[in-house]
């Protein structure tokens, strides 16, 4: 229960910034519906999460220490609460994706199978980035360098958004038969499409394993640190 | 039955340029301890270790027999901490804070909190960052007094408050310990506050204990001596603590058991706590400079 309470505090701490989060959800919905394609909308969701989920690290001031650290809980629970905040934000964003896909499916656009596969890959990527970002934040101090924090916050999201857009573009071209030279990708894609449930499952499992590793390392770091 | 509520056993902490060395004391239930020393002497470091925000490199701290490492939940529940600055997230409002307290402290008494909120005129819908310093301190006190704690830790909490609010708070502290089951550890620069309410005094300087005793014992153990420096002999000069020269002669502290060294040419009186502190601090600073 205390883990959920810390997650709740993080939602409170980000204050008005939570409307930025709603903005990303709305943007994702608009982009998907206007293009009749949920893939880019899904990318915006991942980007939004990577940028916004580290907000409690920035919003926390050194002066808040006396309040947050004096709440009756263990350091482990505080770290788990922070990770739960990140996960809850992702789930809330995913809700937008589900709504989008439901609308598009009703219009007979897109394939549920491919959606689930891409979703699994995105979940793995989001969990990986979250594990790395949070662990980095805990390891190098939550409020030591605002510039460094900014880089950790923005760069993974940008790489994900632009890299993901590029990959999706190539995939779409391959599907339309415009990129025949990417034979290895075509082979890989046909293998993946033949083993879609397994690939989706493995991607999600990989994401969860990475996230658990990030949590474990973060807990170890925080347990050894003062004012953490 | 355990009568010591707080046991600090041999704690140490080393930072670049500062060391807290083997600090130890105990505070019985139903008493107030003043934890005093000049700026940078290690008061806040000690309190941070006691509250569990910071780890000690040696020893341990027990509150009612519980160590923070063993049971952080009940350890922290038993502490009411009031710092020198407001520690509430500035972007939050009191309504949100109350939700958090209710979530984390099942014994949080909202009615009692609302009563204090009304009495101290704390604005419910204003962001805490927009509160005045006095309001922030009152909010910290209200948050602590609205739940059941055993040990109240105040870190320079009365600094900058107007005398009326300070007197109210000192009264609240005395009421807090009245049942004989709770205690207060009070770090302050305002030594007159200690004179009024402290039962024990711990004096720290440069991370080391200078003295620790019951306040009445300390007051009994020292004399404030005044006289002419030319009229004291070497044996008395060696025992004087923090000799301060002025146009009328000198003023210093002398351990009471050395009173026999005084001649009729010096006058002495019972010192106040702040006079003992000031002379001790000067004495240490002089020795450090040598």
Q: Give the low-confidence spans of chain B.
A: none
Order of helices and strands of chain B: EEEHEEHEHHHEHEHEEHEHEEEH
- N-to-C series of helices and strands of chain A: HHHHHHHHHH
Largest sheet of chain A: none
Mean pLDDT of chain A, nearest integer?
85
Strand content of chain B: 25-35%
Rounded to the nearest angstrom, the distance between the terminal CA atoms of chain B is 48 Å
Please describe what this structure looks like.
The complex is a heterodimer of chains A (228) and B (290). Chain A is mainly alpha-helical. Chain A has one domain (2-224). Chain A is built from 10 helices and no strands. The two termini of chain A are 20 Å apart. The N and C termini of chain B lie far apart (48 Å). Helices cover 34% and strands 29% of the residues of chain B. Chain B has 290 residues and is α/β, with parallel strands linked by helices. Chain B has a 6-stranded mixed sheet with strand order 6-7-8-3-9-10, with helices on both faces. In chain B, strands 2-1-4-5 form a 4-stranded antiparallel sheet. Chain B has a 4-stranded antiparallel sheet with strand order 12-13-11-14. Chains A and B meet through helix 1 and helix 5 of A and helix 2 and helix 3 of B.
Features:
heterodimer, A: 228 residues, mainly alpha, 10 helices, B: 290 residues, alpha/beta, Rossmann fold, 2 domains, 6-stranded mixed beta sheet, 4-stranded antiparallel beta sheet, 34% helix, elongated
